[in-house]
């Protein structure tokens, strides 16, 4: 497409031709290039907002088009300028085309967003930033401890952070936060979605908002509401400052990203961007709506539960996902991503189905990308369909949220495990899921809670969900909580029940921190955060969801156990070994690298593994030497450990077997008040462990 005829000699076009790459608004001191993909449009206008009352705008027709990309350049555009698009084309929903020039459309590649849904603009951004020599941390998975948190909720109530910074990127980068995370032992924060998102209209109508942020609309733009400094590009600078601060403290930044669906919902949902530019290409349709099929069906195909599913097979949708990921790594310096509902975007369409495909275009492209293949890639390996459950099925180098770890450990500590066989498998890294394809225990991201579900405190305080505040008559949220209230539903003043709950919370946290794999903690669990039994507070932007930093009701004893467990993990490579345990010696004549002990002191037998009534297991881990050599091939030697996990309702006597390698030890972590840290133990002794306790013994000189 070319410009219209010139009227006279010597004219100069108001809009320069520009170029069709890169997509988005690319600022320079001379001009800003605008490029947007709308292959079926018949006209595109760049709309520049005029500051002042009334929301006035100035429109510029983009007359250049190539490869489906409309483009042009405007001279002397200042950073902070707001812009959007109006697009004209066929109004033919039955063909997947919903063009409407009356609707302002956000730039899919916009680097910042200003304003609320329905009145939002993209923003021209100058990407320059002084990183002050900061470099990627690139910490190994075996040294990683992930802490899942919400940017706003983590600091909104923190009284040691300046009030104007609470709930913002600047607040999260504050030294008070980095010091807390360092003291706890966290090495990476996993941020709930920070791509620009909008709340669903139905939530706004009932006076709530989308708090979690799983409703993305701007895949290059930091969510503006988390900025303390403004929404005209300041949010970009503030996000970078937060990353720089966290990196200076040795803490990596992982983003929870939602490429599987957008805030535009179903075909009758709001139009903010993609639907008005390339509805047919960007969103999947039900078969047989495939690539120009004459029997095209405009019914949206939805395995996200949110009305639409992004079509990652579409070349431009795939390009957007990859460009977005690279942008956050190269420009924003993040260290990795956790992909929400990964199964939804790992699918390939056939003649009658859209099936999960581990050789899909997206996975191949990420695996070959020289930038992306070296960052942390974490999958939530499922979607809302029956065939989308992929735990243990993602290809290398992906790691996975392991919900089987969550369910097994919850069941064990509530007395519903039916034995110890599966418990041992999860403690040792879930080899049944990851060893068969050459992956390691560190492909398992272990967790007992996440943002979605009960907190640890609520897990030991409620049998049932209490989501009435969400306005959905308590129908939302899972009913499969695997929780136990220990005799009273909800909070209680009964000192015995409170003490048991706190011990059970400490048991869960200690088990998580000392299991083989990558531990992921949920923010506030280590200090007894409660949501009042709400297991789905996605719409609760208030004290239900925010972390309470007061000490009045904090479970600080749980904090100390969590901190101690993470310290042991960090200081002792025996407790975070890279290779799978083999159950055989690491040196001629030495002990097994891993041995499972029965309370009687013998190694577990086949009959023991199938004893449904057994609620106690001992895990001996040898450190003399480790199987894995050091970075220069050196032999690594650590102390050995014996970890007892006792979920029984009564105290139990455990026998410490005589052996040729370890003769004495000391308790270095205990949730049993009768066995304090420092208690000396000798082989051949009988040790009484209190009901429902974790006891960790470390080798000591005889």
Oligomer classification: single chain
Order of strands across the biggest sheet?
12-13-16-17-20-21-22-23
Number of helices: 15
CATH H-level superfamily of the largest domain: Glycosidases
Shape-level CATH architecture of the largest domain: Alpha-Beta Barrel
- Radius of gyration equals 28 Å
Approximate shape: elongated
Distance between the termini: 85 Å
Helix content: 10-25%
Count of strand segments: 31
Low-confidence stretches: none
Structural class, please? alpha/beta
EC number: 3.2.1.-
Protein name: Glycogen operon protein
Organism: Nocardioides aromaticivorans
Biased composition (Basic and acidic residues): 466-479
Could you explain how this protein is built, in words?
- This is Glycogen operon protein.
- Pfam families: Alpha-amylase (PF00128), CBM_48 (PF02922).
- It is an enzyme of class 3 (hydrolase).
- Belongs to the glycosyl hydrolase 13 family.
- The protein is an alpha/beta fold and 702 residues long.
- The chain folds into 3 domains: 24-108, Immunoglobulin-like (Sandwich); 141-261 and 320-571, Glycosidases (TIM Barrel, Alpha-Beta Barrel); 581-699, Golgi alpha-mannosidase II (Immunoglobulin-like, Sandwich).
- It is 20% helix and 20% strand.
- Helix 9 (403-413) packs across helix 10.
- It is elongated and about 105 Å long.
């Amino acid at each position: 497409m070319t410009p219209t005829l010139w009227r006279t000699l010597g004219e100069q076009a108001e809009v320069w031709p520009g170029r069709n790459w890169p997509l988005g608004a690319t600022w320079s001191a001379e001009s800003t290039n605008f490029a947007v993909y709308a292959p079926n449009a018949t006209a595109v206008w760049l709309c520049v907002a005029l500051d002042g009352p009334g929301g006035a705008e100035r429109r510029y027709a983009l007359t250049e088009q190539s490869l489906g990309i409309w483009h042009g350049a405007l001279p002397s555009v200042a950073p902070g300028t707001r812009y959007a698009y109006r697009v004209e084309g066929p109004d033919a929903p039955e063909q997947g085309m919903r063009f409407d020039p009356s609707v302002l459309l956000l730039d899919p590649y916009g680097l910042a967003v200003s304003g609320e849904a329905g009145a939002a603009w993209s923003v021209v951004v100058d990407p320059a930033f002084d990183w002050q020599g900061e470099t990627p941390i690139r910490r190994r998975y075996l040294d990683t401890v992930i802490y899942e948190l919400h940017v706003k909720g983590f600091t909104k109530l923190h009284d040691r952070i300046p009030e104007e910074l609470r709930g913002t990127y600047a607040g999260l980068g504050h030294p008070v936060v980095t010091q807390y995370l360092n003291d706890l032992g966290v090495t990476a924060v996993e941020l709930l979605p920070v791509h620009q998102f909008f709340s669903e209209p139905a939530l706004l109508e009932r006076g709530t908002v989308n708090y979690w942020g799983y409703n993305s609309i701007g895949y290059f733009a930091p969510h503006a509401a988390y900025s303390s400094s403004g929404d005209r590009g300041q949010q970009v600078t503030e996000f970078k400052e937060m990353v720089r601060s966290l990196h200076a403290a040795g803490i990596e930044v992982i983003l929870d990203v939602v490429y599987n669906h957008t805030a535009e919902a179903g075909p009758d949902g709001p139009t903010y961007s993609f639907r008005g530019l390339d509805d047919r290409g960007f969103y999947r349709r039900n078969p047989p709506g495939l690539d120009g099929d004459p029997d095209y069906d405009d019914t949206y195909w939805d395995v996200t539960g949110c009305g639409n599913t992004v079509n990652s097979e579409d070349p431009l949708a795939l390009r957007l996902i990859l460009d977005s990921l690279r942008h956050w790594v190269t420009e924003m310096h993040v260290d990795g991503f956790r992909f929400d509902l990964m199964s939804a975007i790992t699918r390939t369409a056939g003649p009658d189905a859209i099936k999960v495909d581990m050789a899909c275009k997206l996975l191949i492209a990420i695996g070959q990308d020289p930038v992306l293949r070296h960052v942390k890639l974490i999958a939530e390996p499922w979607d809302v369909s029956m065939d989308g459950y992929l735990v243990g099925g993602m290809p290398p180098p992906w790691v996975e949220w392991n919900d089987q770890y969550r369910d097994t450990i919850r069941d064990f500590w509530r007395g519903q495990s039916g034995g110890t066989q599966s418990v041992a498998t999860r403690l040792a890294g879930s080899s049944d899921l990851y060893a068969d394809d050459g992956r390691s225990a560190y492909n398992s991201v272990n967790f007992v809670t996440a943002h979605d579900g009960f907190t640890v405190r609520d897990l030991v305080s409620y049998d049932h969900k209490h989501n009435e505040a969400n306005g959905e008559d308590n129908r939302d949220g899972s009913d499969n909580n695997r929780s136990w209230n220990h005799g009273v539903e909800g909070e209680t003043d009964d000192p015995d029940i409170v003490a048991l709950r706190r011990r059970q919370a400490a048991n869960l946290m200690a088990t998580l921190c000392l299991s083989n794999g990558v531990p992921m903690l949920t923010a506030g669990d280590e200090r007894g955060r409660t949501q009042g039994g709400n297991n789905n507070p996605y719409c609760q932007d208030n004290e239900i969801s925010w972390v309470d930093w007061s000490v009045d009701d904090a479970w600080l004893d749980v904090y100390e156990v969590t901190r101690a467990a993470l310290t042991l993990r960090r200081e002792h490579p025996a407790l975070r070994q890279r290779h799978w345990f083999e159950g055989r010696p690491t040196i001629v004549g030495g002990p097994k690298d891993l041995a499972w002990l029965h309370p009687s002191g013998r190694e577990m037998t086949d009959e023991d593994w199938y004893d449904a009534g057994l609620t106690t297991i001992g895990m001996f881990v040898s450190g003399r030497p480790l199987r894995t050599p050091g970075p220069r091939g050196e032999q690594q030697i650590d102390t050995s450990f014996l970890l007892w996990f006792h979920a029984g309702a009564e105290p139990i006597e455990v026998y410490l077997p005589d052996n040729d390698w370890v003769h004495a030890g000391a308790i270095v972590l205990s949730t049993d008040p009768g066995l304090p840290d420092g208690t000396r133990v000798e082989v051949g002794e009988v040790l009484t462990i209190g009901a429902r306790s974790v006891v960790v013994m470390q080798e000591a000189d005889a």
